[in-house]
Design a protein that fits this description.
The complex is a heterodimer of chains A (404) and B (272). Chain A has 404 residues and is mostly helical. Chain A is built from 19 helices and 2 strands. Chain A folds into 2 domains: 104 residues, no CATH class; 221 residues, MetI-like fold (Orthogonal Bundle), CATH 1.10.3720.10. Chain A is 72% helix and 1% strand. In chain A, strands 1-2 form a two-stranded antiparallel ribbon. In chain A, a hairpin with a 5-residue loop joins strand 1 and strand 2. Classes of the chains: A mainly alpha (404), B mainly alpha (272).
């Protein structure tokens, strides 16, 4: 009995100490990193703006039959709450929020609220419809009721080019508003292409380094690591300098007479720019895992295959290639994960045709200020990345990740 | 038969050369262009003739004279050094305990997640979170964010060094009566030091090159070198950027050589 507890404490204490060492960092990451991500996800489904500004109107609308314009009580309450929202300066946000459900309502809200200041008495139904005929349209009231939900799946639906209809069903967005699925698809295809190009370019390089004498291998490895360590912004600047219309490559092509001065190639600020610059940035992430796998393959195997009568293609395909598959998987997954979330390079060299899903998230964060939609697009991207990350852990193992 | 093999070998080496050129040329091309006497981004005829007049240091002078760049450097150093110190301390401690902790696979996945999460998502979340705490547009907010982004590198490099560490050494120290803290300081730390320093350099490089979080969370007072470059590339592109880029390339090469030297030191058997 006594010895039993001794064994227990002997194995328990080091484990407790180990946990105590990891705990500070776990807590730090939970607060500085996981909590922000959770907050972004909350933003994507939770928006109390309208619910807080128009609580009583929304209460009344819950009993509204939805078949014809609501009765006077709703109008009077709405008028009062709109004026109050105008006073405490929340009207702009409320109007923007409703406008996202039903485009065009922003100005109806702001203008009507301004004019309502001068209205002393009802009936508010006639007054408001007089101010703007939109108040007589039941769609307006549907929009307010819908925007009044604190929790909503609208932004996720929107991010998938869908919209909720007033009757509760879900329909596709009208064709001119379908943009996000196409963008997600483009991001997927671009990432896949970049992964394929990186594999095509990285495989021979990794092979060369892995089977060179150590001195040369070290030198070649440095050539791969210099771009890996160089600032992303520097590398992006380089590609602008090389590829722009008045840039080095176009100048060279004009000088040697391959193209005329008026026929300069548009190689940047479009999809070509995104593909070239991103391939350059991500190539080391393909080469390094391939190299560490290939280094362990003895070159004598290939000679053995040859002596047994295999030609060089057979020897490669039947003996060498299968052994490199773990490296191919690790490198490809890593490049693909990094590519689908890429932001900086497409933003700087992608022009209008080379933008990816991350750039749309940035647009909604900084320009349209539709943070909920940014959160929903971010949530979708995050789910994709987590799925790929778990796949990586299964196939390669996160604890086997190495740098350089 | 021999000749087709030689052709194949030649084609293989030629394509490898081209791919290496693709990797390195874009970085090399910046360096001479940063000495261009003219405000162009391409080689002038004078430069190609190696005419001394065509080269100048004017863009380097502009960096030193422009307060935006000097203040950017100060901000980058403050945020970089503080976040690196935080990331290295927390990351090293965690790496020491990680392998013998229950559920270490999940813990590892969580600790590495800042490295693979798309930075735009991290930046958006951090913007929401630090704004509510009143830490947006402060150095503290950026230091905490950059430390979070840098810790995975420390955890990975220190874990890698530890995997080569002989645990009998700590047992030997303990059996000779050393306390855990003394064992760590006198036995473990000297042996894992190369990994710790490499991790710190990775974390510093991450912060020193980070622009998206700064873009979302930083104000005028927190403009860093990458933030200033971003503005330069997007708004008024001038050859000053190439001079800054050359400086950053030199810095990257320095970091790389240090890390490689440390790696060899860690890999080499201890003889003394």
């Amino acid at each position: 009995m006594n010895s039993n507890t001794n064994i227990k404490t002997n194995t328990l204490r080091p484990r407790l100490r180990a946990t105590g060492l990891v705990l500070p960092l776990l807590a730090f990451i939970a607060i500085t990193f996981i909590a922000p991500l959770a907050m972004m996800l909350v933003h994507s489904v939770y928006d109390p703006t309208v619910a807080n500004a128009l609580p009583e109107t929304l209460n009344l609308l819950r009993e509204w039959d939805g078949k014809s314009a609501p009765d006077e009580a709703v109008y009077a309450t709405a008028a009062r709450e709109l004026l109050k929202a105008r006073q405490d300066r929340s009207l702009g946000r409320v109007a923007t929020r409703v406008n996202r459900v039903h485009p065009g309502l922003r100005s109806v809200f702001t203008r009507s609220a301004r004019n309502l200041q001068n209205v002393r008495e009802g009936p508010y139904r006639e007054v408001m419809i007089g101010l703007n005929s939109a108040w007589g349209d039941i769609q307006t009231w549907y929009a307010i009721r819908s925007a009044g939900d604190r929790f909503t799946s609208r932004h996720y639906l929107n991010a998938l080019d869908l919209q909720p209809l007033p009757d509760g069903s879900i329909a596709r967005q009208p064709p001119e508003r379908r943009i996000y699925l196409a963008l997600l698809w483009r991001t997927f295809i671009v990432s896949l292409s970049i992964t394929a190009i990186c594999l095509l370019l990285g495989y021979p390089i990794a092979h060369l380094i892995a089977h060179s004498p150590p001195r040369i291998a070290n030198l070649l490895l440095i050539l791969v690591l210099v771009p890996f360590w160089t600032s992303l912004l520097v590398r992006t600047t380089s590609w602008i300098v090389l590829l722009q219309t008045q840039g080095v490559i176009n100048d060279l092509l004009v000088t040697i007479g391959l193209i005329g001065d008026d026929g300069r190639l548009a190689m940047i600020y479009n999809m070509t720019g995104t593909l070239v610059a991103m391939t350059h940035v991500l190539l080391p992430f393909m080469i390094l895992p391939l190299y560490s796998i290939m280094r362990a393959i003895p070159p004598t195997q290939m000679s053995a295959a040859a002596s047994l009568g295999a030609n060089s293609f057979q020897a490669f395909w039947r003996v060498y290639w299968p052994q490199t598959l773990p490296g191919v998987g690790a490198g490809s997954l890593l490049v693909f994960i990094l590519a689908i979330g890429y932001y900086i390079t497409p933003a700087l060299v992608g022009g209008s045709t080379g933008q990816l899903i991350s750039n749309m998230i940035a647009y909604h964060m900084q320009t349209s200020l539709n943070w909920s939609l940014a959160g929903a697009l971010g949530g979708i991207l995050l789910v994709c990345v987590i799925a790929l990350y778990l796949l990586y852990d299964r196939i390669v193992g996160i604890d086997r990740m190495r740098l350089g | 038969m021999i000749s087709t093999q030689r052709i194949g070998r030649g084609a293989y080496l030629a394509s490898c050369t081209l791919i290496f050129a693709f990797l390195i040329a874009p970085i090399l091309v910046i360096v001479p262009l940063s000495f261009n006497a003219e405000p162009y981004f391409t080689f002038t005829e004078g430069m190609l003739r190696l005419d001394a007049e065509a080269y100048s240091l004017r863009w380097y002078r502009q960096i030193v004279e422009n307060e935006l760049w000097t203040r950017g450097l100060v901000n980058s150093l403050i945020i970089g050094i503080a976040s690196t110190a935080l990331a290295t301390a927390l990351g090293t401690l965690a790496a020491l305990g990680l392998s013998s902790m229950p559920g270490h696979r999940i813990a590892m996945a969580l600790l590495i997640s800042p490295m693979v999460t798309p930075v735009i998502i991290s930046a958006a979340g951090m913007f929401f979170f630090y704004s509510t705490l009143g830490l947006a547009q402060t150095h503290i907010g950026l230091i905490l964010s950059h430390a979070a982004l840098g810790t995975p590198f420390v955890v990975i490099t220190v874990t890698a060094t530890l995997s080569a560490f002989d645990t009998n050494l700590t047992r030997a120290a303990a059996s000779l009566g050393a306390s855990p803290i003394l064992t760590f300081r006198r036995v473990q730390l000297p042996l894992i030091a190369p990994g710790v320093i490499s991790g710190a350099l990775f974390a510093f490089a991450t912060s020193f090159d980070e622009v998206v979080v700064v873009l979302f969370m930083g104000g005028i007072e927190q403009r860093t070198i990458p933030r200033q470059m971003w503005a330069g590339i997007r708004e008024q592109i001038s050859p000053t950027i190439l001079a800054v880029a050359t400086f950053l390339i030199a810095f990257a090469v320095l970091l790389l050589l240090t890390v490689e030297w440390l790696r060899r030191r860690a890999a080499a058997p201890q003889t003394d």
